[in-house]
Design goal:
Elements (H helix, E strand, L loop, with lengths): L1 E9 L2 E16 L2 H5 L9 H7 L9 E14 L5 E12 L11 E13 L4 E10 L4 E13 L2 E12 L13 E8 L2
Antiparallel strand pairs: 1-2, 2-3, 3-4, 4-5, 5-6, 6-7, 7-8, 8-9
Length: 183
């Protein structure tokens, strides 16, 4: 396993690129799709697996070699910091159905802005899986009460195909509040 990255600035635009080779990385199998040849598989795959009487153990993960690469750019605009990235995973020598495709591309966008002498930050993150047709949207606001203490609140919304990496969690939208203390 190994990788390389490169970053440079051009006319106020920050650019970066990275690539890595990963040996024996665990990937989630699409168990429901794999077992569909065994009759009618209910929506509750885990209940089905508990009741599966063939006596075979079905591993949830398989290890495969993979190449990951990404490119990104950001540039401050009127006090906002937009970031755009493309990240792709390519699974090598795969013979199993995985939860991701053998090639999985994600488009990632982030916009953040600092206010009130950098004590308040608003941020929105959007992730879109091209092949898997899924998305996640995460708006968040955080406030630094002191240099070592900050609070944040946000929301995570997930959607897309139930047979995809993130879309399988489409019913798990959630709000969150965090307190961070650093020492």
């Amino acid at each position: 396993a190994g990788g390389a990255d490169l970053a440079w600035a051009v006319a106020g635009l920050s650019l970066r690129a990275e690539v890595s080779y990963q040996e024996r990385r665990p990937f989630s199998r699409n168990i429901k799709r794999d077992l569909s040849g065994h009759g009618n598989v209910p929506d509750d795959v885990f209940a089905f697996l508990r009741d599966f009487s063939a006596g075979e153990v079905t591993p949830a993960f398989v290890e495969r070699d993979a190449i990951m690469w990404g490119i990104g750019a950001d540039c401050p605009v009127a006090g906002f910091m937009p970031v755009a990235e493309v990240v792709q995973t390519r699974v090598l020598r795969n013979d199993r159905r995985l939860l991701i495709e053998d090639v999985e591309t994600q488009l990632i966008g982030i916009v953040r802005k600092r206010w009130l002498d950098d004590r308040l930050e608003t941020r929105a993150v959007v992730i879109y899986g091209v092949e898997g047709r899924y998305f996640a949207v995460i708006p968040r606001v955080s406030y630094a009460l002191r240099d070592d203490l900050a609070v944040a609140a946000g929301f995570l919304a997930i959607g897309g195909s139930r047979q995809s990496l993130l879309g399988q969690f489409a019913e798990n939208d959630e709000g969150f509040v965090t307190i961070r203390y650093t020492f």
